[in-house]
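Meet my pick.
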Amino acid sequence: MKKVFFTLAAVMAVLMLAVGCSAPKAAGSSVSLDIPATWDKIENGVELNMMQALDETTLPAMYPELDLTKVAAYSVHMAMINIRAEEIAIVEAKSAQDVESVKKALEARLAALDQQWSQYLPDQYEFVKAASVKTNGNYVYLAVGENAEAIEKIITDSFTTK
């Protein structure tokens, strides 16, 4: 009986020592997101209508408030036809100081979508009203459309801690 007690006590002491020596996670620890891989997961995991990718020549027209000098990487796709309120934007800000600027640009785009769709196709407007801009670390994202919740889940599940 004494052997069992001492063995159990030794195991408990080792476990407490291991837990006590482990490094705590820093609050607000930095995250990483592989944007192209995340887009592939979205494209393969969610039913999307025909989408077109915006590039450095087309992005400023749709996101005029987005300062590309504050952007490290992005993937922005929108419906190719104007009867669908579908848009997915994932943007990595260059620094923590740039996140607010990027967030405001995506919020401005969402406000423009709200204005555009409020007078056109009520069923599509519901998707715009349900959308919101979200952030995680230096990443800012927006998903508008019928499958926005599933898209947001793919994005959030794709984040990794550095």
Observations:
- The two ends are 47 Å apart (CA to CA).
- Confidence is low (pLDDT under 50) at residues 1-29.
